[in-house]
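Module 6 notes. Inverse folding takes a fixed backbone as the condition and produces residue identities as the prediction. Think of it as a translation problem where the source language is geometry and the target language is the twenty amino acids. Below is one complete input and output pair. Work through it position by position during the lab.
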């Protein structure tokens, strides 16, 4: 099963889009010209309603974007993606996070073996372990039930579980779940000082069990634990998500407390695997299964829906349009729920580590913009921070507004205020405020003459700012799973169109390599040649 590698700039659709980009139409004009625009530029799927009508596209632009997807053979790429083909070709790996939530009856083959039975065996292991910890039947070295869980990992071994655990806070049980990621010693000590050794369980997540940050933090936690309970306590208080059985045994973790990982799942897409153990501990295995079910539903939608009705495809093509053709540098993610306050940070890794590439799948330097900067914060907090830039700044910033029709705690007064802002901001960003409206408003306040004239330029909003609205019925494990999977598939489509490899991350390696060199230099008297700036900084640090 081959994975297409087509230079998009050679397609007919690309040339059309370049022409359309020279004279983009204003949103206000598009709505005036197309009375049924809102309905025609929306998709309803399950509990998701996606309104992309407030974007700088018309029927011709949209048609060309779908034509581009077809010319780069997105359909063939989708089949390769779900079928286990080696699409991460620089690392010679399949990309099968979708297999982690596939139906039990599905057959997905890697090296001619169906991996689905193995996936379900691990899911059963997670369920049984979490049930014992939650109900207190598996106890600590002192015979007590665990009260706290500490996830030790970094990157995908931290961001995904941390984001999901926060997002599903409404559904959590009595266990308090904490996350340690940064190699900053102050970080680990701040977490540990809140905990009691006798009732704390550590989950160490590292595929190789050699990641510097994770092993440093795990070793510090081990010293903290053994100082209170002795060396034998490690076997009762530490579990590992890893593949390095030798290193795990040396650390003191028992084989029955090891949860496997797979080479065909990248770290930033791994929360669906045993990497999500801390999620299952926090909310219970049933809610973890519901999370997987929601993701599987989105997988089916992405795999089967026509391109024109396919949510991840439409969102990805919009990002390509803004990034590559209209020159936008970033995309804002604004969830109108505090539960999703970590979603922008999670998506930063998923999107920027995946598609921050300047070499295409043929090994050639690209001649067009790929990968966009992702940032954001929850509304309404964001409205009192960076919305000024979005409303009156000089940057083109497409934004995703994510909201839920129902609140979880049922406080309708609060939720109505929240959602009033949710709807108002996208309207304001699109419509703006004209000079005539500003004059009328100021006159009504009693201003006239020079006082009025001086204020007019500062009160005008040009509008024409693009947004996409995702209105979801309710934040549940199932809808959250679908939302995260939607962004995963969006990443995939963008990579296909840009003809880049989305699933390697060589860009994170160089800094790590140099850090190891410098660390050795700090521990010894030897000196390595650096640039003059680094040499100067090291000298000041050592002095």
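Target side of the pair, the amino acids:
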């Amino acid at each position: 099963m081959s994975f297409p590698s087509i230079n998009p700039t050679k397609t007919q659709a690309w040339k059309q889009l370049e022409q359309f980009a020279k004279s983009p139409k204003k949103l206000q004009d598009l709505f005036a010209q197309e009375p049924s625009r809102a309905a025609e530029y929306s998709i309803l799927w399950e509990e998701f309603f996606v309104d992309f009508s407030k974007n700088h596209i018309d029927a011709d632009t949209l048609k060309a974007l779908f034509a581009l997807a077809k010319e780069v053979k997105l359909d063939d790429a989708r089949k390769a993606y779900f079928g286990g083909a080696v699409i991460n070709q620089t690392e010679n790996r399949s990309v099968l996070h979708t297999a982690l939530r596939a139906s039990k009856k599905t057959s997905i083959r890697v090296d001619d073996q169906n991996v689905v039975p193995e996936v379900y065996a691990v899911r059963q292991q997670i369920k049984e372990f979490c049930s014992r910890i939650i109900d207190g039947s598996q106890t600590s070295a002192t015979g007590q039930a665990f009260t706290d869980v500490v996830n030790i990992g970094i990157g995908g071994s931290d961001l995904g579980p941390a984001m999901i655990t926060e997002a599903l806070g409404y559904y959590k049980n009595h266990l308090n779940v904490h996350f340690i990621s940064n190699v900053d010693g102050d970080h680990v000590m701040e977490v540990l000082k809140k905990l009691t050794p006798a009732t704390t369980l550590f989950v160490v997540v590292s595929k190789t069990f050699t990641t510097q940050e994770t092993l440093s933090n795990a070793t510090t936690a081990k010293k903290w634990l053994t100082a209170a309970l002795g060396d034998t306590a490690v076997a009762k208080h530490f579990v590992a998500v890893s593949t390095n059985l030798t290193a795990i045994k040396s650390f003191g973790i028992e084989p029955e407390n090891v949860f496997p990982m797979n080479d065909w799942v990248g770290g930033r897409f791994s929360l669906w695997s045993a990497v999500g153990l801390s999620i299952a501990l926090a909310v219970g295995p049933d809610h973890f299964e519901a999370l997987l079910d929601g993701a599987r539903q989105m997988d089916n939608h992405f795999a089967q829906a026509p391109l024109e009705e396919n949510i991840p495809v439409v969102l990805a093509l919009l990002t390509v349009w803004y990034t590559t053709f209209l020159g936008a540098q970033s995309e804002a993610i604004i969830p109108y729920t505090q539960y999703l306050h970590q979603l922008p940070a999670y998506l930063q890794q998923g999107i920027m580590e995946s598609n921050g590439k300047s070499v295409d799948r043929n090994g050639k330097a690209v001649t067009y913009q790929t990968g966009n900067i992702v940032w954001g914060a929850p509304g309404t907090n964001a409205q009192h921070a960076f919305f000024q830039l979005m409303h009156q700044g000089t940057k083109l910033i497409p934004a995703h507004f994510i909201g839920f029709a129902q609140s979880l705690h049922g406080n309708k007064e609060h939720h109505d205020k929240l959602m009033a802002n949710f709807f108002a901001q996208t309207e304001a960003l699109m419509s703006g405020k004209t000079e005539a409206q500003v004059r009328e408003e100021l006159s009504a306040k009693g201003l006239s003459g020079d006082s009025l004239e001086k204020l007019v330029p500062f009160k005008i909003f040009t509008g024409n700012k693009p947004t996409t609205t995702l209105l979801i019925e309710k934040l549940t494990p199932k809808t959250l799973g679908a939302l995260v999977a939607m962004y995963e598939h969006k990443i995939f489509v963008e990579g296909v169109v840009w003809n880049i490899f989305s699933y390697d991350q060589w860009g994170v390696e160089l800094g790590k390599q140099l850090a190891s060199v410098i660390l050795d230099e700090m521990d010894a008297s030897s000196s390595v040649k650096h640039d003059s700036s680094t040499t100067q900084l090291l000298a000041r640090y050592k002095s």
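Reference fact for the lab report: The mean pLDDT is 95.
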